[in-house]
Amino acid sequence: GQVNLKNKDVFKHYTANAVSDFKHEYMINSPRFIPPKLPPVEDVCLNPEVPTVEVNGLSEVHSAELRHLCLHVEHPIVLIKNCAASCHLNLNLFNSEYLSDQFKEHPMELRTQRFQEPEVNIEATSKRKGWRYHSSRSAISIGKYNEYQQASRQDASEEATQERVDHSAKQQSTEQGTDSPAAKPSKKKKGIKVVKFGTNGDLSDENIFALLLAEVAKLPEFLKVASPENILSYVGHTVLGMNSVQLYMKVPGCRTPAHQENNNFCSVNVNIGPGDCEWFAVPNKYWGVMHRMCERRRLCFLSGSWWPLIDDLRDAKIPVYRFTQKVGDIVWVNTGCVHWVQSVGYCNNIAWNVGPMTAHQYRMSMERYRWNKVQSVKSIVPMTHVSWNLARFVPIREPELHKQMEQVMAASMEKLTASKKRLLKEKIPIKWHGHEKNEATYYCRKCEVEVFNFLFTTQLDGKHVVFCEDCARSADSSLLSYSVLQQFELEDLQTVRDHFHLQPATPPTSNTPEKLEFFPDASSPPRAQLSSTVAASS
């Protein structure tokens, strides 16, 4: 139900439990991980009300109570009403007319989809109800999508007018007892109705979108794209859609299939309007069950395109939050929440990810990082690199978070030390590469795991590409066809560990980090241009 922020008693429970230990079956350094089984189903409400709060004024927007409400582990998703108005956001800067006028040629991804009611999903291949969801990909500009959006709106208006005319003629004919030609309904186009969804519009360029990003910066600290409280502000480079704003332009029926956010980070979604969006959400503790349900349907939970049928989830005793996001509403998607969205009207949305600086968020992100490796899925957030950056730049005040980060860095150092010993023993030269400001993280060309510090490079099609040590050795055990490049000195990394101490529990600073530089080395020699691709968030 809806919460009144003025009722402080409501938040005693949230505040008391917001930083409590989160008991989890799988420890962060566990060598083996499997998806969790179905939690106990006694007294489970299968149609829970979404936690909803209406904020009034900046004092409530920036209150600790709102942050606690959103971050509480028992709230998989939260609807924040009136937040945009309370922050004085100018939503007109994100509407289709303004965007088309100012950024007409700016590219977007286009998804062509079949129009279906939210409760229904007819599979494209089997023509039967199921979870598999097809969506074809192409490209479009903001200007072209605006034209499509307006034409679709005009067509819908004409159809509605014709339906009213037909209904009026039929009613008049019934009253007069006649069957005149005017009473016959107009012929409608037959076939499958198709909708086009403009998605993943990149608004990260501060030089182009400065005015728009300034509006987003009016939000409270825990909702901001860049913040000292946001783990994703310490990646050191842009990960599209994660630590940058993305634009979505919709007509009725556009779908974002079911998913968890990349590496289980939280997300913020603002409905620009004028139409509504319908949301469906399942708590994180049921993701293992949904994973198995996907497997039975030969779908990939992590990277597949699927739209769960509500009846199937109810039969499995899985609760589903279902609610409407209206213009100006902000949806907070908490850590690990499985969710899927369908537009009800004509609307635009902007969205990005955030990583609260908590032990719970860090553990969940590292857990997914390891599970992605097992499932051969790329983690577009380089958690090893992020962990070292956090230790380098952020005073950690939560004991459990400090403990987890220390474990990750210890494992990283052990791996790097062993790797260097092998290379030296085999007399394989290690060339200094360094790490430049805003340089993207490298991923293995073959298995797509994050490659940290020691880069095993070779030439393919005239380009230098990076592999992890395991894949490089599997292709060439002697490593003679590879050059090994080093980004960071192990002594520097050890220094970071030596100075990584738990800090006193004092209020955080308000300095928002700029683009971060990890161990800058201005004297680094020129280097070969390496191929590195950072995937965009979906």
Backbone shape:
globular
Strand content: 15-25%
Helical content class: 25-40%
| Head-to-tail CA distance between termini | 30 Å
Q: Identify the strand order in the major beta sheet.
A: 1-2-3-12-9-14-7-6-4-5
- By DSSP (H or I, 4+ residues per run), the number of helices equals 14
Low-confidence stretches: 7-31, 509-528, 532-538
Number of strands: 21
> Measured on Cα atoms, how large is the radius of gyration?
26 Å
Largest sheet geometry = 10 strands, mixed
Mean pLDDT: 87
The helix-and-strand class reads alpha+beta
Characterize the structure shown.
By secondary structure, the protein is α+β, with helices and mostly antiparallel strands. It is 29% helix and 20% strand. The strands form 4 sheets. The chain has a 10-stranded mixed sheet. Strands 15-20-18-19-21 form a 5-stranded mixed sheet. The longest helix is centred in the N-terminal third of the chain and has 35 residues. It is globular. The two termini are 30 Å apart. The relative contact order is 0.13. The C terminus is likely disordered.
In terms of topology, how is this protein built?
Blueprint: E1 2-4, H1 12-17, E2 52-54, H2 58-61, H3 64-71, E3 77-81, H4 83-86, H5 96-102, E4 107-114, E5 136-141, H6 142-176, E6 194-202, H7 210-216, E7 246-250, E8 255-259, E9 266-274, E10 277-282, H8 287-296, H9 310-315, E11 321-325, E12 330-333, E13 338-343, E14 347-354, H10 359-374, H11 383-393, H12 399-425, E15 430-432, E16 442-443, E17 450-451, E18 454-460, E19 463-467, H13 469-475, E20 483-486, H14 490-498, E21 530-531
Parallel strand pairs: 1-2, 2-3, 15-20, 19-21
Antiparallel strand pairs: 3-12, 4-5, 4-6, 6-7, 7-14, 8-13, 9-12, 9-14, 10-11, 10-13, 16-17, 18-19, 18-20
